[in-house]
Every structure is written in structure tokens, then in C-alpha cells.
Design a protein that fits this description.
Immunoglobulin-like, five-stranded mixed β-sheet, binds 2-acetamido-2-deoxy-beta-D-glucopyranose, binds copper (II) ion, about 20% strand, alpha+beta
Length: about 180
């Protein structure tokens, strides 16, 4: 118990802000597309152009909004005018560093940004079936042959309840912080 209390304290003291650029230089991409975060770290998204979102999905369905057991994290669409002098920012805090979080851009007009590979992950495993690369390949239609092979099918098994609990608690934190989550730089 003491160990966990101390670990929590240390993690809180060293909590970092991790910056992610969205749509930099007009790209359909998160930069970086995959990050490693410790418990308590805050991921800060800077929307630099166009009209993107950072929307939570699942590994099994990369381009679909997470709805169960409850709504996932979602910035909503963040429009940036070509002549904008300020950019929108959105953030959430990671509550459980051992549970990967999967995201996509929900923009589909005029094309699906997700199908173009505009996906993002927090703490994706670096080995095994559920890597960021496998997630991105699935988003881009890995079932269309070339990338498939060992890549997991689009209809995977549901995540363990622990992961679902984790997502729920992350959402809880987001809800608490929601009022202040959107700021202009
Ligand atoms: C993270 O950003 C918040 C809000 O801008 C700031 O108060 C805090 O000091 C930053 N933390 C670090 C470790 O830079
Ligand atoms: C955007 O352009 C700048 C300057 O050329 C470059 O440093 C940066 O890496 C680019 N970002 C992306 C996401 O391509
Ligand atoms: C941003 O994209 C969404 C989804 O396509 C659309 O509903 C919304 O009108 C767009 N916002 C602007 C200002 O174009
Ligand atoms: C940006 O362009 C739009 C459309 O031309 C104009 O209405 C708006 O005032 C401009 N905004 C700035 C900050 O220049
Ligand atoms: C996958 O293949 C189908 C049929 O050829 C095609 O319609 C679809 O656009 C492809 N999906 C992607 C993401 O390339
Ligand atoms: C964190 O996530 C892991 C993996 O999903 C889970 O086993 C663990 O119970 C979670 N821990 C907490 C405190 O929710
Ligand atoms: Cu996008």
C-alpha cells in the first residue's frame, strides 16, 4: 500500500505535458502519432490547420467512435481558418499507463482522415498484435490484403473489463476538466 501511495506521489510530482500537433503543415496526421505517457501525464493537442478531431476508438474498430461502456474522449471538430492567428487546444490526462488508448480523426469530409491513416495512440504495445502500426494499418484497410497476415481482424474480442474501467475513469477525469479543457493559445 505504501509503495503504491509513494508511486502515485512520485508520478504526480513528475507529471509531464506531452504535446501533439494535429494537422501540421496541412498533413492528415498527428505528430507524433504514438506517445508513451506515465500515469498523470497530460496529452495536449494543438490543432494547427483544417478541421480535425481527436476521438477515442478501440483497437478492434479504429475508425469508429467508442460508445461502450460509455462515450470515449472526444475533442469534437476543431476548425482552424486559413488566416487564423490563434489555434484551438485540447487535453486529457492519462489515468492508467498500462492500458493503451486508441484514437482517430473523425473528419470524413471530403475523405475519411482515419482511412488515410490519421490515427493516434497512447501507450500502444511495441510488440505483439496490438502495436500502433497494426492499429494504423487496420484503419487504412489492412483487411485489403497486403498488410493483413498476422494483423488482427477488424472484429476483435472486447477489451478486458479493466481496460474498460480505465477508459471510463479517464473520461471521468476529462469530464471534471472539461470546462477548462479548451483554451486558445
Ligand atoms: C503542464 O501545463 C500546465 C498548464 O499549462 C502547467 O500548469 C504545468 O506547469 C505544466 N507542467 C509541466 C511539467 O510543464
Ligand atoms: C512541418 O514543417 C516544419 C518545417 O518544415 C517541419 O519542421 C515539421 O516537421 C513539419 N511537420 C510535419 C508534421 O510534417
Ligand atoms: C468541421 O467538420 C465537421 C464535420 O465534417 C462539420 O460538421 C463542420 O461544419 C466543420 N466546421 C467548419 C467550420 O467547417
Ligand atoms: C479571415 O478570413 C475571413 C474570410 O475572408 C474573414 O471574415 C476574417 O475576418 C479573417 N480573420 C482574420 C483574423 O483575419
Ligand atoms: C478496401 O477494398 C475495398 C474493395 O476493393 C475498397 O472499396 C476500399 O476502399 C478499400 N479500403 C481502403 C481503406 O483502402
Ligand atoms: C489499468 O489497466 C490495466 C490493463 O487494462 C488493468 O489490468 C488495471 O486493472 C488498470 N488499473 C487501474 C487502477 O484501473
Ligand atoms: Cu483529420
Amino acid at each position: 500500500m505504501l509503495f503504491f501511495a509513494l508511486a502515485t506521489l512520485v508520478s504526480a510530482v513528475s507529471a509531464a505535458n506531452i504535446s501533439v500537433k494535429v494537422g501540421d503543415n496541412g498533413t492528415l496526421a498527428f505528430d507524433p502519432p504514438s506517445v508513451t505517457a506515465a500515469q498523470g501525464d497530460t496529452i495536449v493537442f494543438q490543432f494547427l490547420a483544417k478541421n480535425h478531431s481527436v476521438t477515442q476508438s478501440t483497437f478492434a474498430a479504429p475508425c469508429a467512435v467508442m460508445t461502450t461502456p460509455m462515450a470515449g474522449i472526444d475533442s469534437g471538430f476543431q476548425f482552424v481558418a486559413a488566416n487564423a492567428t490563434q489555434i484551438p487546444q485540447y487535453s486529457f490526462t492519462v489515468n492508467n499507463a498500462t492500458s493503451p488508448l486508441w484514437f482517430f480523426c473523425a473528419q470524413t469530409n471530403p475523405v475519411s482522415h482515419c482511412a488515410k491513416g490519421m490515427v493516434f495512440a497512447v501507450n500502444a504495445p511495441t510488440t505483439g498484435a496490438k502495436t500502433f502500426s497494426a492499429f494504423q494499418a487496420a484503419a487504412m484497410g489492412a483487411s485489403n490484403a497486403s498488410v493483413s497476415g498476422s494483423a488482427p481482424a477488424a472484429s476483435g474480442t472486447p477489451p478486458p473489463s479493466g481496460a474498460l474501467m480505465t477508459r471510463a475513469s479517464v473520461v471521468g477525469v476529462l469530464a471534471v476538466a472539461a470546462a477548462g479543457a479548451f483554451t486558445l493559445l
